[in-house]
Design goal:
By secondary structure, the chain is of the alpha/beta class. It contains nine helices and 14 strands.
Length: 291
C-alpha cells in the first residue's frame, strides 16, 4: 500500500517526446510503472517509446484511463500544461520542471482550487513521487531503496535520494519530493496527513530546509494531528544569512527560517531531528527497532 501512487496508477507524460521526457519515461517503465501514453499537441498520433502520443490530456485520460500526469515541459509552457491537466480532472499532476515563475505556480494552484481541488499538484521543481516496488512518477531513482513501512516527504531531491539509500534496509511505503520553491502544490502537512491515515506507514521521515516557515507549520500540525513517530532533518545549519541557497525558497531573514529555529520547533513537539542525513537515518532505525 502507498499514498497517492500505487501499482495500479496509470501514468501519462506531458512532454514525453522531449529529451528529458523520453529519458525519464524509459526509467519509469524500467521501474515497473504503468506509463500508458504521452501528450504533445504537435506530435499527436505518433508512437513514441512504444506508447501512443495524444494531442491533449483530456484525450489521453479518456482513451487510457490515466490518473497521474508527469509534466516535463519547459518553464514557459508549464502553466498551460498544468491547467490542461486540471481541466481534464486528472487526480495527480507531478510537475518536475525547474524554473517555473512563482506567479505562474500561484496561478495554476489557484486554478486547481477554483476547479474544486480535484487535481493534487506535486511540485514544481521536484523529483516526483515513488512507491518502491509499486510505481514511480518522476525522476526518483528506482533502484536505491526497497519497499517498507516508512513514509518520506522532502523539500530536497538529492536528500530524498540519500535518505532512501541510507534506509534501504528498512524500506519505504512512499517517498514524496515536494520541491523547494516558495509556492508549491503539495506541502509537508498534506503528506503528513496522508501518511498518518495510511495503515501501511508506521513512521515518517520529514526533510526540510532553511527559508520560509513550512517546517514550523508542519510542527504545529504534528502536535495536533500526527500520532506516528516522526524523524526530521533540516538542511542548512551553516547557511549564511540573507543568501539564497540552492532552492528559490531557501533564504533566511534574521532568525526567521533558520535551520536552528526549525529544529527547535520540531523538537518541541517531540520530533527527533538529526543534524546530518546519516544521523537522521540512525534516529529512524532506533524508532523502528523500538516500535
Amino acid at each position: 500500500m502507498a499514498i497517492w501512487l500505487t501499482e495500479n496508477s496509470k501514468i501519462i507524460v506531458q512532454g514525453m517526446t522531449g529529451s528529458e521526457g523520453t529519458k525519464h519515461t524509459r526509467r519509469m517503465l524500467a521501474a515497473g510503472a504503468r506509463v500508458v501514453g504521452g501528450v504533445n499537441a504537435r506530435k499527436a498520433g505518433i508512437v513514441h517509446e512504444g506508447l501512443p502520443v495524444f494531442g491533449t490530456v483530456k484525450e489521453a485520460v479518456e482513451q487510457t484511463g490515466a490518473d497521474v500526469s508527469v509534466v516535463f515541459v519547459p518553464p514557459a509552457a508549464t502553466k498551460a500544461a498544468v491547467k490542461e491537466a486540471i481541466d481534464a480532472e486528472i487526480p495527480l499532476c507531478v510537475v518536475i520542471t525547474e524554473g517555473v515563475p512563482v506567479h505562474d505556480t500561484t496561478e495554476f494552484w489557484a486554478y486547481a482550487v477554483a476547479k474544486g481541488g480535484k487535481t493534487r499538484i506535486i511540485g514544481p521543481n521536484c523529483p516526483g513521487i515513488a512507491s518502491p516496488g509499486a510505481s514511480n512518477a518522476g525522476i526518483i531513482p528506482a533502484d536505491i531503496t526497497t519497499p517498507g513501512r516508512v513514509g518520506l516527504v522532502s523539500k530536497s531531491g538529492t536528500l530524498t535520494y540519500q535518505l532512501m539509500y541510507e534506509l534501504r534496509d528498512i524500506g519505504f511505503s512512499t517517498c514524496v519530493g515536494i520541491g523547494g520553491d516558495p509556492v508549491i502544490g503539495t506541502t509537508h502537512i498534506d503528506a503528513l496527513q496522508a501518511f498518518q491515515d495510511d495503515p501501511n506507514t508506521d513512521a515518517i521521515v520529514m526533510i526540510g530546509e532553511i527559508g520560509g516557515d513550512a517546517e514550523e507549520r508542519a510542527a504545529a500540525y504534528i502536535e495536533e494531528h500526527v500520532t506516528k513517530p516522526v524523524v526530521a532533518y533540516v538542511a542548512g545549519f551553516t547557511a549564511p544569512e540573507g543568501k539564497t541557497m540552492g532552492h528559490a525558497g531557501a533564504i533566511v531573514s534574521g532568525s526567521s527560517g533558520t535551520a536552528q529555529a526549525k529544529k527547535e520547533a520540531l523538537e518541541k513537539v517531540g520530533v527527533r531531528v538529526g543534524r546530518t542525513p546519516s544521523e537522521t537515518a540512525r534516529l529512524m532505525r532506533e524508532v523502528m527497532r523500538s516500535s
